[in-house]
Design goal:
alpha+beta; 10-stranded mixed sheet; 33 helices; 18 strands; about 50% helix
Length: about 850
């Protein structure tokens, strides 16, 4: 094993040793010897690290043999560990499942509805300020001792206990549109309780009657016996913070009734509105935001009041909106930090914000009603209207959601996995943007799912909208969403603190032409289920043998069909055959009864077909898909180092092509890493090692041209020389690699300035030119480059011969007046002059000048340049 490969192996294991540590380890290994007492150091290639399995678990699955049994003797009709079940959303089944297609209820990892909770806690620490109110006292030991010593009277001395300043009331709106924010409210309440800054944290619910009366209760259900007046939340001491969580949509907000009730509360303490919608949508709600600057007006003995100064624009004045001192904030650290410091009296005494505005007159129509009047009619118009008004993150999220069922838990999962930097208000843009509508959950008694599933919130796209969004998301993009969700769930099964219910079912054949459980939002392998749900995984092993046999046979037939179509394309070059192969490979990935080897074959075939499509038709999208599927195939693994090396080489080729298109350096770096890994995984005597060396050298040469690191160039030259040793000196491939080596040596000469490097480059160009057949397109170019190199070395006689041959070759292939022919003759004239044959040089330039005048005219800059050079010679 080479030293470079040894260091690569150690890096893969995460050791990252220094050169000194490697040398010491080799010295110790040589002197300590192995278990057999030998002194030879042998480093095995690291295998893929798998999670440790507890004792007693079944052995990993092996594909069934010819007799239908696996390596462990299990019946081939049983469920394998690498086969995957589909995860389906509750309440979205299209048909009542049959006994054969029944599903299993399972708890699936969920994501938080309130991101950045740690940062939110940091920003809210300002509320941890304590106040000496005198309500509670404790024994002052030092004061008692001092009192007794001074007065000789044995009497305890007490002192007031500092106590938490505020308590907080989370007032949650119960409007119909607030159902999607229940989880967010629950997490916000838990966060405030865990903060430890408030005396008490209570959750109350805001109700608005049809006649405009505003009330509050301890339940989100409207019950006249529990409703209490809103002023009961007043605290005469001014030590209560009221946080209203609402999207401000509803009749009570539009009429101003809720706003007037909150103004009454704000007279005794701080009141704020936490708005989950993005700021640019506030004007479509009942907020009527007024921009300005809020500052602390008074501060004394626990009471905190505020003053607001509006910065009204002309539009604000025309709206006749009366400003309040109730700030409207988004749920983000950058919003809540300044607000907490202002309310708690820490830091800056003012902040820029928008406050709740009250209407001077009752509006003729609510913002929601006015918005509905102008909703586009067709699905395409709806999507384009949403794209024009929404943020880029919201539109990207909408396209991703078109690939999954619109269960709220699944929606949040997609947002977290596909757009981890997005915020809750991006999700609210999608849900309120006119693309989806709330659909009622299926009652538990009408389905085979648990009763708790009916409480889940489900949406559905308006007719035709999903199809429009799917057309903007490629088929590989849809598959990418499912794969990303599958990987996330498999990594978080059993360790996530939050879960939601889903249906685990085998993606069997449709019933009556329709899918039983709808479309899956993710897949989970039996091996993962075995790790976290051992009893369920055991019960799956012998389930539905007829369907398993059907799926396995169908998958094998699809693979054969795809591979035959790909072979037919390579013979005939017909694009229809290539499209047929790619489509069959895609379909083969959707099967349940798919073990690791079957999935590996499908991924490799699909990636190869897409790479061929790019090489044939130049479609960049196909190249991106090919890269992604090669990476997925490497993650799945084929079980043999030769397969991994071949995949790494193909991935390196695809990444190099992607760099050529985009000029993004990251692609080139990834191509170099993949190429090195492919070469390290290939034995020295493997015939494919030559191809891998040449490919890696091409990438390293390009990296030198990009970053200028001489080490890359030196390694590329070494690799090209190793390739030349394995090639026939008389073959065209030998000439092509010689030309590449000559180019590397020429760049090396320019970097080092050494004449020996320039001489090596000239020798390689001359040999490459002589080894190339005269009819080849590269033949005159290599002769010309060799002649230029000879001129730089002052080998002018050799330069004249090489440039003469190059000019004759260009004249024969392109014509005597071609630019390449003329340029060759100009350099030949310069070489003739330097070699002492000035008459021939003048004659050569005179003929070139006559052609230039005839083609470009006497006053063209290139003609003038030849005329000046000719004058110097004469």
């Amino acid at each position: 094993m080479s030293m470079r490969r040894l260091i690569k192996v150690l890096d893969d294991l995460g050791l990252e040793p220094t050169y000194r540590e490697v040398a010491e380890a080799l010295w110790l290994a040589r002197h300590l010897g192995g278990p057999t007492g030998g002194s030879t150091v042998r480093v095995e290639r690291p295998v893929r690290q798998e999670a440790p399995e507890p004792a007693g678990w079944p052995a990993p699955y092996r594909p069934p043999a010819e007799d239908g049994r696996g390596d462990d003797g299990r019946d081939g009709n049983e469920v394998g560990d690498d086969w995957r079940y589909g995860l389906y959303s509750h309440g979205l089944t299209e048909e009542r499942p049959s006994a054969e297609a029944r599903g299993h209820n399972i708890r699936v990892p969920a994501v938080s509805a309130l991101p950045d909770q740690l940062e939110l806690i940091r920003q809210l620490r300002a509320f941890k300020r304590r106040l000496v109110a005198g309500r509670t006292q404790q024994l002052d030991e030092e004061g008692t001792v001092a009192w007794i010593a001074r007065t000789q009277v044995w009497r305890p001395v007490f002192r007031p206990v500092p106590e938490r300043w505020f308590d907080v009331v989370l007032l949650v709106d119960t409007g119909a549109s607030m159902v999607i924010w229940k989880a967010l409210v629950s997490e916000l309440a838990s966060l405030l309780q865990c903060l430890g800054a408030f005396r008490d944290v209570r959750v109350r619910y805001l109700h608005t009657s049809e006649d405009g009366e505003v009330s509050q209760s301890s339940s989100d259900r409207r019950d006249s016996t529990r409703l209490r007046p809103l002023p009961e939340l007043l605290d005469p001491a001014g030590r209560r913070v009221v946080i209203v969580v609402s999207d401000c949509v509803g009749e009570g907000w539009d009429s101003g009734a809720v706003g007037r009730g909150l103004v009454e509360l704000s007279r005794s303490g701080p009141v704020s509105v936490f708005q989950p919608l993005p700021q640019h949508l506030w004007r479509r709600t009942g907020v009527r935001p007024v921009s300005g600057r809020m500052s602390a007006a008074t501060f004394g003995r626990g009471r905190r009041r505020f003053r607001f100064r509006a910065r009204r624009s002309l539009a604000d004045r025309r709206r006749s909106t009366r400003a309040t001192s109730i700030p409207v904030l988004q749920l983000g650290p950058e919003w809540l930090g300044p607000w907490a410091r202002l309310v708690a009296g820490r830091g800056s005494a003012a902040m820029d914000c928008a406050v709740l505005g009250l209407p001077a007159t009752r509006p003729s129509a609510s913002p929601a009603q006015r918005q509905r009047r102008y909703l586009p009619a067709s699905p395409l118009e709806r999507v384009w209207s949403f794209r024009a008004a929404a943020s880029p993150e919201a539109f990207q999220l909408a396209t991703y959601l078109s690939a999954v069922p619109l269960d709220l838990s699944v929606i949040r999962l997609v947002q977290r996995v596909m757009l981890p930097e997005s915020r809750p208000f991006h999700l609210s843009e999608v849900l309120t943007g006119g693309l989806v509508t709330l659909s009622s959950a299926m009652p538990a008694e009408e389905s085979d799912v648990p009763a708790g599933a009916a409480t889940e919130v489900h949406y559905q796209f308006l007719p035709g909208v999903r199809e429009v969004l799917l057309s903007m998301l490629s088929r590989s993009g849809q598959q990418a969403v499912l794969e990303a969700l599958s990987h996330f769930l498999e990594d978080h099964f059993g360790i996530s603190p939050r879960e939601f219910s889903a249906t685990l079912a085998m993606p069997g054949r449709p019933q009556n032409g329709r899918r039983v459980f709808g479309s899956p939002f993710a897949y989970v392998s039996v091996s993962v289920l075995r790790r976290v749900h051992g009893q369920l995984a055991t019960s799956l092993r012998g389930e539905n043998p007829s369907t398993l046999r059907h799926d396995r046979d169908h998958h094998r037939a699809l693979l054969e069909q795809a591979e035959d179509a790909l072979a037919s394309f390579r013979r005939s070059g017909t694009s229809d055959e290539l499209d047929k192969a790619i489509s069959a490979f895609r379909d083969s990935l959707q099967f349940f009864a798919l073990d690791r080897n079957g999935r590996f074959r499908s991924l490799v075939g699909l990636a190869g077909g897409l790479l061929l499509r790019y090489q044939r038709f130049g479609r960049a999208g196909s190249l991106d898909e090919s890269i992604r599927f090669y990476q997925e195939a490497l993650r799945v693994g084929g079980g043999r180092e030769q397969d991994e090396a071949k995949l790494l080489h193909r991935l390196s080729t695809a990444l190099f092509a992607r760099y050529t298109l985009s000029q993004i350096p990251d692609y080139l770096d990834d191509a170099a890493r993949a190429g090195r890994s492919a070469l390290d995984a290939t034995p020295e005597d493997d015939p494919r090692a030559r191809v891998y060396r040449e490919s890696l050298a091409d990438v390293l040469h390009r990296r030198f041209l990009l970053i200028g690191e001489l080490g890359e160039l030196t390694e590329a030259a070494t690799l090209y020389r190793e390739v030349l040793e394995d090639l026939d000196p008389e073959g065209q491939a030998h000439a092509d690699v010689l030309a590449k080596l000559a180019g590397v040596l020429g760049d090396q000469a320019e970097s080092t300035g050494l004449e020996t490097d320039l001489a090596d480059s000239y020798d390689a160009w001359r040999r490459a030119a002589r080894a190339t057949r005269p009819g080849e397109q590269e033949y005159p170019k290599r002769l010309f480059t060799a002649g230029r190199s000879a001129m730089r070395l002052r080998y002018f006689e050799s330069a004249v011969d090489l440039l003469s041959d190059a000019a004759a070759a260009f004249d024969q292939s392109l014509g005597p007046e071609a630019e390449e022919t003329l340029r060759c003759r100009i350099y030949r004239a310069r070489s003739l002059y330097q070699s002492g044959d000035r008459l021939a040089a003048v004659g050569e330039l005179t003929e070139v000048l006559e052609i230039r005048v005839r083609l470009l005219g006497p006053n063209h800059p290139e003609t003038e340049e030849i005329r000046r050079e000719l004058a110097e010679l004469v």
